[in-house]
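Q: Could you fold this chain for me?
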Amino acid sequence: MTGLTYDDEYPTCDATYATLCIYGDDLDPNAVTSLFGIEPSHTQRKGEHLKKVVVRRGGWFFSTQNAVVSRDVRRHVNWLIETFSGKEEAFHQLRSQGYETVVSCYWRSASGHGGPMLSPEMMGRLADLGVGIWFDIYFHGE
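A: Sure. Below is the predicted structure, expressed as structure tokens.
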């Protein structure tokens, strides 16, 4: 993104990644893969048994976890935005079918303060895709 300076060492962050999540009761992960033309990091189908839990709704997930090396969540989110740029119609189609589209950000604090941030341009591009964002924040250490 123009004008965005990343801090890949982001000193207040211990670890971070972002995942595009598509959810729906009757979601067919293969159909989402076909629609985007992108292979997911993982998928789930409603009714599957995963780690002693029965999956309550289908899901299609595309993560930066093993693809982007940075403790700056902005780099992770921007990588997702760039990867899915030009696919606004696909997102519209999924939402019109009742599916939820959201970016989930895992963020683990190194020191208990100085949390993640997004740029206004990044938030605008997510809005253009019709994709919400939420943070799963953890604290460790003292």
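A (continued): The first strand starts at residue 13 and ends at 24.
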